Amino acid sequence: MKDAAVDNSLWDMAGVDGLAVAKHLFGEEVGYLAPFQSMETVLEGKDCSVLRMCDRNFRIVYPGPLTQLVDPIQADIWLKQFDWLTRLYLPINFREKIILQATVRPPHRLEKLPNHRAVPAQLQGIPLLIWQHPNQGQASLELHVARKNLEPLLTKLKQLQL
Amino acid sequence: MSLSTVLSPPAYTDIPSPLGPVVAEYRIAPGTATAYTVSQGQYIQIIDVSGAQCSDFLAFNTNDYSQEIDSTVTRTLNGITTPQAGLHSKYFSQSMQPLVEVIQDTCGRHDSFLLACTPRYYEDAGYPGHPSCSDNFNQVLAPYGIAERPGWPAINFFYNTQVDCHGNILSEESWSRPGDYVLLQARQDLLCASSACPDDIDPANGWRPTSIHVRIYDRATTNSKFFPAIGRRVAADFPLRLTQDSAFTPRIRQLTDDLVEYNGFWVPNSFAFEGDQAEYWALRQRAALMDLSALRKFEITGPDAFTLLQYAFSRNLKKVTSGCSAYGCLLNPHGGIVDDGIVFCFGPTHYRYVGNCDTNGDWLQRIAQRQGWAVDIKAFSDRIHNLALQGPQSRDILRPLVSFAEPTITLDNLGYFRFAAAKINTIPVLFSRTGYTGELGYELFVHPDHGADLWHQLMRAGKSSGLLPLGMQALDRARIEAGLLASGYEFDDLISPYQAGIGWTVAMKKPDFMGKAALEQIRPHPPRVAVGLVLDGHEIATHGQDIYACGERWRIGHITSATFSPILDKSIAMAQIVTEYAQAGTSVEVGLLDGIKRRVVATIGPLAAFDPAKSRVRL
């Protein structure tokens, strides 16, 4: 039951060698990202989105078996799929409504959030990560939220007519 | 204690003038406490009347007294021991809601670890019945229905405590001077309590408890006046200095809320939607713009200007002619580095020194007076602010903007460490080919009146080239790669240029200069020398970590600065080690964590891990 809840495309990777492994997988370009910046790439023929969370932490949206690509590298990292984290997409035209309703803690900013950027935010008390990046070639907002907050978030989004 | 509303002239002459119209004020007699309410948005100024007096502080949400300041929550959310004016300024409740925010603080040393003094403290010291802040709080809070406690977890303003390297919490006399204050803004409607601590049995209050004064200001009338600031004192005979904006800060604030206090100025740490790595790569691959106004500028003029600087500054200024500048250091008699900086020569009777310290001018003045030299030294920092535009594309960005007063000077023939009067479009600047990044670049000195316009014009001109503003995080990464020194990390007044890695700036052939005799002794065998390290693996060292000979228990040096170098893809460090291990290629061990649990092998190399030949700055 627990496994069934896992988002099979959502991966987190971190560790001392986190950047080195990210570069190995996604190329040197990933090293140019600052925390909460992201890039789109193709890995083993499949679309892949990479979000840098910290110096050596990355969140990856990839529909393939990432473990099989990472394990042979034998680096000091972990690769996990959190059963407590999930995500949902919103069309980009909801961006302004979200920005009006959500709050962030300094020094984060939400206004004028560019593409390929994410920001930790709160929507009426629900913590989420708002990530603006392309989905299947279309600009979109991806919201990462604790699984336990998914239903309350959906309810709020409906209330806000999002 | 009494409450009085002040309508006209302030009633108290023993404290600094009010910061604005006062809506209420309280004089708290020595050894007592008082409770008072404030509305959300109002300001609370807690003033140490006579100096060295602690004032413990409590705040409760008036709608729910269970919501009070929680020091543990506050420390955790801020990541610092005591909130400071700026980004990490709020005191939080247990539910992580901000109750008060520090707006200004002229003392800078407070306690957030210990209880307000308790009856038990005095009992254990043999003073049963001694008044205590906790008992005083119990008394003044009782009318509000707040239950007594044996000890109150207060914010102990002006209480000088620190945790030493053994984990002991030490307490000494307060650092606060007469009139020092903390200015808070209420983030909710609050019931507050402040004390004038009665402790006279140890040095906390200088053995002699005195009064505390609390003023309340209204938000509506004063909001715009109370800018965030940290008060710093750089020397006993220098005035308190509050953190200030540079001419560029208003523009910078449009781009980031991540500002930190640095050397008396608010400077950007990183920029919104960009960040350390992105800004760093802009610098290394394209161009970056940074505010270096925190540097201090001094004009040195007069018939003996050359003689003074030739004596006080490490370089031989005979070689530094008009339009040239030179990097070096000011020295003290024992060969220690007072400061590092750049001397700009406008002519044999006119120089400018650009360094880090407000006290530099005073130091030069003292030397001149002792020697009987005729010079005039003026602090110019408030009249000249400066930007640095650095990066391989900096020249191309500036090319269409810059025109030099002297027609023979062009961007292409302006050499490294050369400067000239110029205009950026119509803005007059002093245009200098210098920097602190290891890249081709320029520093532009401008009158503050033109600062905002200059920032705007440069950002606009560089947009198509991918120019980014650069914060301190990225700058620190770049300067470590380039082997450039930072005050307090690579040098201080006990460290010689030979230890810091800038022995090349000491012109030993000069007949006489400050510290020469000492440096002659140090030069053949300095206690340590500066080296660069490349660490195995991806862990990053930190300032102060020890360096060991491989497989040995004894230390051979320590890390002064460290970072991950994106362009080298290596963990690198600057270090100072004994000469016996300083040869390039030598393997050493950096003691991470406690120095025992994990040691990482590192290889000695040049101080500048990136471009040690300095080819990029000379492009």
Keyphrases for this structure?
heterodimer; A: 162 residues; alpha+beta; five-stranded antiparallel beta sheet; 4 helices; 10 strands; B: 619 residues; nine-stranded mixed beta sheet; 13 helices; 36 strands; disordered N terminus
Adjacency order of strands in the biggest sheet of chain A: 2-3-4-1-5
Whole-number mean pLDDT of chain A: 93
Q: From the alpha carbons, calculate the radius of gyration of chain B and give it in angstroms.
A: 27 Å
Helix content of chain B: 10-25%
Low-pLDDT residue spans of chain A = none
Give the number of helices of chain A. 4
Largest sheet of chain B: 9 strands, mixed
The number of helices of chain B is: 13
The most extensive contact between chains is: A-B, 23 and 21 residues
- Characterize the largest beta sheet of chain A: strand count, sense, and whether it forms a barrel: 5 strands, antiparallel
**Tertiary shape of chain A:** globular
Regions with little confidence, pLDDT below 50 for 5+ residues of chain B: 1-7
What is the radius of gyration of chain A computed over CA atoms, rounded to a whole number of angstroms? 16 Å
What is the oligomer described by this structure?
heterodimer
- Order of H and E elements of chain A: EHEEEHEEHEEEEH
How would you briefly describe this protein structure?
The complex is a heterodimer of chains A (162) and B (619). Chain A is an alpha+beta fold. Chain A has 4 helices and 10 strands.
